[in-house]
Amino acid sequence: MTIKAALELVKLTKKYGTVTAVDAIDLKIPAGSYCCLLGPSGCGKTSTLRMIAGHESATSGDIIVGPKNVTDLPPAQRSTAMMFQSYALFPHLSVIDNVAFALKMKGVAKAERHAEAGKLLELVDMQAYSARLPGQLSGGQQQRVALARALITSPQILLLDEPLSALDPFLRLRMRAELKKLQRELGISFIHVTHGQDEAMALADIVVLMNSGRIEQQGSPREIFNHPRTAFTAKFIGGHNVIAIGNETFAVRDDRLNLRRPGEAVNGPSIAGTVSEIEYQGTYIRVAIAADDGTDISAQLTESQFDATNYAVGEHVLASWDPAQASPLKTSSSVAIPPSDKAA
């Protein structure tokens, strides 16, 4: 039976020459958690994952798995396993031999290693493909084989480097559900790197949002979405407007922004602007507004709300909100705001 282990990073730092990729981060991940390291390209999330795995050396700081400091240990002695973004399957080996490869390197007899590999292939529903070569599998099937291979050493922590990025959107949704189910069944920690906030929100118990080598905010998906602490978090997670009035800056969710025409009664603070775009999104209508102060904001209306008002592009509106539903924002650890393709 696999023993659960917590992970702790203490002032973990990675420098490449004069560039600091990871800047003295502190992080505790309880045993048995699904944690997503989230952030834009270059924020330090993959360097952090590779240091945990032992594929990159830490410039300074400590990596502790359970009671054991593994900072200077080789990958095989860290009680972790890594599933690479490319899956990195051996093209000349069958599925079962790919899964069993680590046990072969340990000198485990063929019958025993195939038996263990067979159990894991059954776990990921790939037992019927054990004799095939990787080139004869779909992307989703290759991912399952890569997962089984990563699990063959009974790791305490499984590390996943953007495991869904190579899949089409439909398969991505299916596989993220399977990943969460597998993590629950195994009961070990999964640490999953992604730049997709929807993916992190759907999978994680703990979201760790990184920005310029530091941890911008961490917490449960609901906590981070409902209570962003910085403009970076509000912008990257999405679904929020960052509004500045006087010396105060705060976030207001799109679905909590109320629109009125000039002259109509407004409850709470408001800003004026012009409707710049209207997008039908199926379950809601997104109304984009170019505010008079030069900022861009948006409101999310139900179909019935939109049909009752029928706003048009070019129309002047007032956007208001309940102050009790606004989240005050503090200065970000970096002034950089994530790009608009953050959900790619």
Give a written overview of the molecule.
The protein has 344 residues and is of the alpha+beta class. The chain folds into two domains: 220 residues, P-loop containing nucleotide triphosphate hydrolases (Rossmann fold, 3-Layer(aba) Sandwich); 97 residues, Nucleic acid-binding proteins (OB fold (Dihydrolipoamide Acetyltransferase, E2P)), CATH 2.40.50.140. 27% of the residues lie in helices and 31% in strands. The chain contains nine helices and 18 strands. The strands form four sheets. A six-stranded mixed β-sheet has the order 6-7-8-3-9-10, with helices on both faces. A five-stranded antiparallel β-sheet has the order 13-17-14-15-16. A hairpin with a 2-residue loop joins strand 1 and strand 2. It is elongated. It starts with 6 loop residues before the first strand and ends in a 16-residue tail after the last strand. 38% of the residues are buried. The C terminus is likely disordered.
Distance between the termini: 38 Å
What is the 3D form? elongated
- List how many beta strands DSSP finds: 18
Strand/helix succession: EEEHEEEHHHEHEHEEHHEEEEEEHEE
The CATH class of the largest domain is Alpha Beta
Structural class: alpha+beta
- Our count of domains comes out at 2
Provide the helix percentage: 25-40%
Low-confidence stretches: 334-344
How many whole angstroms does the radius of gyration measure?
24 Å
Q: Going across the biggest sheet, name each strand in turn.
A: 6-7-8-3-9-10
Portion in strands: 25-35%
Major sheet characteristics: 6 strands, mixed
